[in-house]
């Protein structure tokens, strides 16, 4: 079943969508909303895509959180498809080809990390924003070479989620640089969003690609972690420099001996041949 939501819809009017608080603050009001009474397990609630921004797929087993995510992303103009089960989520990502996935870590039947791994192993690099409930989940998301593009820790502001989705898609849709960037054996083509080493393609996530592109845009220039967070992720005070460090490690691992990224102790990173 699909369920179209539009501004002014009677169902929406009872939900405090103007709330700027966290998901947990919105949990109570949403529990009593008429939306949830329609929201039986296994049912898909699809938001109306009003501005053709593309489909965002949410995999989240807590109905109240999924509803808030769906409402805010729908309001922002995205089509939204919700799955509450891990295996069903993976199947839908493969069949519906969303522009981005908002992926809970703890899920029935298959957790978010296993879903991400399955996608990446099959060559699917759809941007993924992980939603984590605990610090140890953050560690799992960041500590493995999973190809997570970003993550949010519960509770989070629904507006923050929308900002993160917009950030990832804006980077992907940005004006392509006309010229490929070259450094040693590495060629990075911003238009086709491809990286090759000695003419062999290397698969990167959206975030890894943007990080390498930023560093290769000015070889020899030292970028601070704050500068990289701001220009690549679009936010500043997020997990300190750890997010940057982890993604740099992943880029280095993928480039192997061709890695041009050097750590500048106490400052940040630079790329040089
Ligand atoms: Ca969960």
Describe it for me?
- It is a single chain.
- With 273 residues, the protein is α/β, with parallel strands linked by helices.
- It folds into two domains: 2-172, Rossmann fold (3-Layer(aba) Sandwich); 181-271, Arc Repressor Mutant, subunit A, CATH 1.10.10.
- The protein is 41% helix and 18% strand.
- It contains eleven helices and twelve strands.
- It has helices at 10-13, 23-31, 34-38, 63-75, 86-96, 112-121, 135-143, 158-173, 206-216, 225-233, 242-255, and strands at residues 55-59, 79-83, 100-104, 128-132, 150-153, 181-183, 186-189, 194-197, 200-202, 223-224, 261-264, 268-271.
- The strands form three sheets. The protein has a five-stranded parallel sheet with strand order 2-1-3-4-5, with helices on both faces.
- Strand 3, helix 6 and strand 4 form a beta-alpha-beta unit.
- It starts with 9 loop residues before the first helix and ends with a strand.
- Calcium ion binds at residues 61-62, 104, 106-107.
Question: What's the topology here?
Answer:
Elements: H1 10-13, H2 23-31, H3 34-38, E1 55-59, H4 63-75, E2 79-83, H5 86-96, E3 100-104, H6 112-121, E4 128-132, H7 135-143, E5 150-153, H8 158-173, E6 181-183, E7 186-189, E8 194-197, E9 200-202, H9 206-216, E10 223-224, H10 225-233, H11 242-255, E11 261-264, E12 268-271
Parallel strand pairs: 1-2, 1-3, 3-4, 4-5
Antiparallel strand pairs: 6-7, 7-8, 8-9, 10-12, 11-12
Helix pairs in contact: 2-4, 4-8, 5-6, 9-10, 9-11
The structure holds calcium ion.
